[in-house]
Amino acid sequence: MNEIAASAVVFPGTVLGEGVKILDGAVVGKQPSLSPRSTAKKEPQAPTVIGAGTIVSTGAIVFAGAEIGERVIVGDQACVRERVRVGDDVVIGRGSLVENDTTIGARTKIQAMAYITAYSELEEDVFIAPCVVTTNDNYMGRTDKRFGLVKGPTIRRGARIGGGATLCPGVEIGAEAFVGAGAVVVRDVPPRAVVVGSPARVIREVPDEELLP
Predict the structure, then answer these.
(1) In this structure, how many other beta carbons lie within 10 angstroms of the beta carbon of residue 198?
(2) Residue from 10, 123, 122 nearest 63 by CA
(3) Dihedral, CA atoms, 153, 155, 159, 160, nearest 10 degrees?
(4) Among 13, 26, 30, 45, who pairs with 65 as Cys (CB 3.0-4.6 Å)?
């Protein structure tokens, strides 16, 4: 049986798996309202799909066109935009924003107040610490040239991004890499590398005992 709070809004057509909880003030299935200059697609979105056992917490918003896996936690006041694909057992922390056309692999953890920009890819078992910022537009909205070049980071399996780090457009963070807190990543990070600083630089490798099975 699903649990939907009286103050929650679930738009018609939304598909809910078994045992979904939608808590106070949450909104699920909302169609986006876009600026004429937005890079996002402007056609009506398909209904939202929420997998079994998922919780959409107090004040969270999940837009139409999003597909959320099973046993996901969408934290209080978090927002998941249109055409986002979220795997099973993912945590999206309080106040975090996942922008449109992003994919998030199973068991990934995104902690509070993180910003995951549009057109990003996070593979399985990624860890995003609080207040991480990702970016996707080297032109920062100034020219139409940007429309064909907007791309968020690609974060490979098992990579970890420290608190307050900034990832510049289009960078790839290799599998099992470790980005230190506050780092500014302006170029690709090799698999298993530990990087720190601004701009981020490699200082060593992740030790064997910290690697995923």
Answers:
(1) 12
(2) 10
(3) 40
(4) 45
